[in-house]
Amino acid sequence: MTPALHGKVALVTGASRGIGRGIALGLGEQGATVYLTGRTGSGRSGHMPFLAGSLEDTARDLTALGGTAVPLVCDHTDDAQTRGVIERIRHDHGQLDVLVNNVWGGYEGLHIWDERGQAWNAPFWEQPTAVWDDMFGAGVRAHYVTSQLAAPLLIKARGLLVGISFFAAQRHRNTEGIPYFLAKNATDQMALAMANHLRPHGVTSVSLYPGLVRTEGVLLAPEGSFDLSNSESPHFIGRAVAALASDPEVFRRTGQVLVAAELGQEYGFTDIDGKQPTSLRADWAE
Predict the structure, then answer these.
(1) Which CATH class is domain 9-285?
(2) How are the residues of the chain apportioned to helix, strand and coil, as percentages rounded to the nearest 5?
(3) Which of 160, 187, 206, 213 has a CA that sits 20 to 30 A from residue 145's CA?
(4) Is 107 a catalytic residue?
(5) Domain range summary for the chain, segments of one domain joined by +
(6) How far apart are CA 286 and CA 268, in angstroms?
(7) Which residue among 107, 144, 180, 209 is the active-site one?
(8) 9, 116, 141, 238, 269 from 108: Cα distances, Å
(9) What does the pLDDT look like over 233-249, one tens digit per residue?
């Protein structure tokens, strides 16, 4: 049987590790050609050397699953580098079927536990401005610029645009920093606004929420830091994106905020361990 995404072209930003890596694998599993971007081409990251994962690793595992990987080193805070990636896709294929804006610099302070991580739960006046810069520069702005440059290619394919967000966008809690809340909320609002612009061209734009994901950083946290009983592998989020990209009626969802676990229930896919994670929507509604 031909894989569901055979012949489709995707771009996943921030695919060296974590959720981006999982999304790339989920698309590759269904036969897509996946362009992978990130700052770590091979070896260990110069920014976070204790976290495993590189574009080379993702490309190898994606190819083993039956997809085609095109790894491209790119720092998405540099617009010229982002433009180079889009031009490469334009040259190679002339269109883009799926764009997943996943790149996110907001957790870097937590991983290396510098002043940004130490002030993660502090009142906003005690947080360094770098927390905002990380989340909006290597997050929201990077998503906007990549989408802006890729839009003509998505329009040619009547493609799918996915922004990775989180439940914190919906409800601010006292323990969540204001930049985090606003950055995730901006990602959701950007999906809606872009849906309005892209609707006449048949392009679907959505925001997607993972649950608690077993990324390399989460798994390095001290024992007891997270209750992993209802957690998700990064690959599970990839299966959610692949299910959307394979759905011939996905356009009906444009402008919506979606939850990976709820899509699993609807489309019938499971995590790589066969489990069906439960949506965290109720937890965040409290």
Answers:
(1) alpha beta
(2) 50, 15, 40
(3) 213
(4) no
(5) 9-285
(6) 27
(7) 180
(8) 29, 8, 17, 22, 31
(9) 999 999 999 999 999 99
